[in-house]
Amino acid sequence: MILRPVALAVACLAANLAHAQQEVADDSRANPQQLERVEVRSRALTDSEMRRRQPVAKQIYGREELDKYGDTQLSDVLKRLPGVNVSGGQLRMRGLGGAFTQILVNGDPAPPGFNLEQVNPAQVERIEVSKAPTADQSAQAIAGTVNIILKDAPRVLQRDLRLGLAYNHDRPVTNGSFTYGDRKGGLGVVLPISFFSWRLLNETETLRQGRDAQGQAQRLATDGWDVPYGHGFNMAPRVNWKLGDDETLTLQGFVVRNNFRNRGATVTEVEQGSTPVSVDDDFLTRGFFEHARVNLQYNNRFSDDQRIELKAGTGGARSRFDNQFHGRNAAGVQTVERQTLGSGKNRGFNLSGKYTQFVGESHTVTAGAELERRTREEERRTLENGLDLLPGVEGQPFDATVTRSALFVQDEWEIAPQWSAYLGLRNERIKTVSEGVGSTFRSNSSVLTPLFHLNYKFDPKARDLIRASLTRSYKAPDVQQLIARPTINTNYPTSGPNTETAPDRVGNPGLEPELATGFDLAFEKYLSGGSMFSVGVFHRRITGLIRNSLTLENQVSWAAGPRWVAKPVNLSRASTSGLELELKGRAGELMPSLFEPATALNLRGSLSVYHSKVKDITGPDNRLEQQQPWSMTLGWDYRFKGIPHSMGMSYTFTPSYEVQQTALSRLETGRARGLDAFFMMVLSPKDGLRFGIQNLAPVSNVTNTQFRNGDYNLTERRQRTWYSVNWEHRF
């Protein structure tokens, strides 16, 4: 249904681009004897120029995109980028689940526990989005990679201050950031510091048709609310030493700490069947997370033909939470008191190095190695009415050690003025060892990933080019998926059975990595004024897809009778394909027949269409989980004439869709929509006031899990609009 309007939109855009290109061509033919003007500029490259010069397909977003809406969380910036979705703090590309997307910080894998909501955009220099992997970075990127480049030391003195207020529910919250940067001789320093707080309201309605502990039909309607709130700070200091003309040493740190709370309550009405043990519940969760990391990098160019890069890093993290739940019956008498306590510690280090050699006049060969080791210690205990929920398991510590090593080689080959290629080979090994009650296992995996990228330029200036990639990537199971220790659904005590709608959960130590063979093909058109248009297609064939199975197990170690259990397993094969369109730039250049060249209006838009199929699941709708059939983004920015103010809006939309999860269960996900706006007032050369609105006119998030026997779990989660105002000052 959507292909027809898509075709019309592409046709109209192509006509306008052709008209713009024709005007440029006509100017060049007006005087064929005129010499071409050569201009040397010292200005920084724009995002489009950096994207055009990359040896592989990559989208780049710099300070303008990061500052535009006055965001205080990086996740809010990413959700507006083409082909990117953010759900529950998890980043998804090409509609695939968060685990398929790799997140890097300065080119290195993000540490365990890293959350995009912990990073203030003021600490970021740029964001690089790659759809296909390269050999010098981990190939755990089936959907793609997001590389977060933290701020570097500026060339001149920089002192920026931002203070803001935001409002979502019942009271405003504060946030702010300060960045100091300077360079003296061979020493450069930048110190971005941010503090943040949040407070919001979620309201939920749930309708569940299922079975009670005796197996009788039961339908429950639940109304609930919760208020997540908290505060924290982070900083990312960086020091650069220039030891010589071609020799540098860089020290990069990152520290984050946040304290969080979430309080809420639910009220349940029985529409059919027996009354649960509790129908009036309240809960409070509180805890903290802190992380600190430091990296040292040494670069040396020995000659015009040789250079080396060495990295070393270490860091650690701690977290703790305490959840208290109180349930009461219809008479108001407390019947359930449950407390869940948990804590975790992460420590790790990494070493890497790569050597680059220019060979002849057309080859740049790089070889390197990486080693990373992470350890995690965790404790968890659940008490119900003062007793352990799982005696002999609760409160028992377990630990896991993950060792990752890699060797790689790559060759960037300038075949001809119009042709260039990138060839790479990477071998990555991951070893996981875990010990603890119910979680002792060893897992080893090794993946060889060949990579090939090819670029063709239609003209030497590379205004138009075609990119093609044939790559292999993978996703290793995480520790939580491997741990065989059960998580009990507390609505159904282990003294009796549970239901399909409320299964227990357990990991699978026998999981293997998911492997993907991918093909990408894209056409990119860059206009002389900085505008660009691209259209691309992709295909991924995945083997060993990890999916949760739902089975009734007659005998389990944690209960006397049969229990429904959800467990991750490797399926045989899945595939996904897609079409991706993107354009951005000045309206007068993109559509010269509709807008004057001097119009200070920038446009951007994207449309992504996806299709996927899981072989071991019977259709229809046997698509990959969380992958919507299509998504779109639209946006514009306008600078007022005569006054130094600007404004803009961004719109994102994803339709509703259904996924056949297993032979027994089916998931329906409702439409999602986002509408953000900003207004920027320039008060003086040093001061600005920015107003922002996020999630204007929000729609409810609706999910419905349906089971073959007629049971279902329908949840509607309502959200509220965020309002913010920020004062920005440059000293």
Task: Explain the overall architecture.
- This protein has 731 residues and is mainly beta.
- It has a single domain (3-26, 56-730), classed as Maltoporin, Chain A (Beta Barrel), CATH 2.40.170.
- 7% of the residues lie in helices and 60% in strands.
- A hairpin with a 2-residue loop joins β13 and β14 (247-272).
- The longest helix is centred in the first third of the chain and has 28 residues, at 3-30.
- The two termini are 54 Å apart.
- 33% of the residues are buried.
SSE map:
Layout: H1 3-30, H2 47-53, E1 58-61, H3 63-67, H4 74-78, E2 84-87, E3 90-93, E4 101-105, E5 108-109, E6 124-130, E7 144-150, E8 158-169, E9 171-184, E10 187-199, E11 202-211, E12 217-235, E13 238-244, E14 247-272, E15 280-303, E16 306-328, E17 334-359, E18 363-384, E19 387-388, E20 398-416, E21 419-436, E22 441-457, E23 464-475, H5 479-482, E24 504-505, E25 514-526, E26 532-543, E27 546-553, E28 563-570, E29 573-586, H6 587-590, E30 601-614, E31 630-639, E32 645-654, E33 657-660, E34 665-669, E35 672-682, E36 687-694, E37 701-707, E38 712-718, E39 722-730
Parallel strand pairs: 4-7, 24-28
Antiparallel strand pairs: 1-6, 2-3, 4-5, 6-7, 8-9, 8-39, 9-10, 10-12, 10-13, 11-12, 11-38, 12-14, 13-14, 14-15, 15-16, 16-17, 17-18, 18-19, 18-20, 20-21, 21-22, 22-23, 23-25, 25-26, 26-29, 27-28, 29-30, 30-31, 31-32, 32-35, 33-34, 34-37, 35-36, 36-39, 37-38
